[in-house]
Amino acid sequence: QVQLVESGGGLVQAGGSLRLSCAASRSSFRANVMGWYRQAPGKQRELVAEITRGGIITYTNSVKGRFTISRDNAKNTVYLQMNSLKPEDTAVYYCAADLVVWGKGTLVTVSL
Length: 112
Description:
Layout: E1 4-7, E2 10-13, E3 18-24, E4 33-39, E5 46-52, E6 57-59, E7 67-72, E8 77-82, E9 91-97, E10 101-102, E11 106-111
Parallel strand pairs: 2-11
Antiparallel strand pairs: 1-3, 3-8, 4-5, 4-9, 5-6, 7-8, 9-10, 9-11
């Protein structure tokens, strides 16, 4: 079964940047929609951004203008460039493929 492996999380000061990556373990895996979701302590998991195989992108309002999602179909990898980070962006970030396959998550902590 294919696995999604996230990387790039960590601790950053407010205003800083991080780049998350998510790679599928099987080169033959083809997903239509790849997305990033996040779950903050005590809150429900929410969509951050998603991108279709054809490049159609959706962002949640709170990250528009700060985050950029992209994907490399040849590498079965999706990225999330996060700029101007805020403390409220602190969460575990999950990668998902067609909302069927999920990664284990990577923690992003933004300090004041």
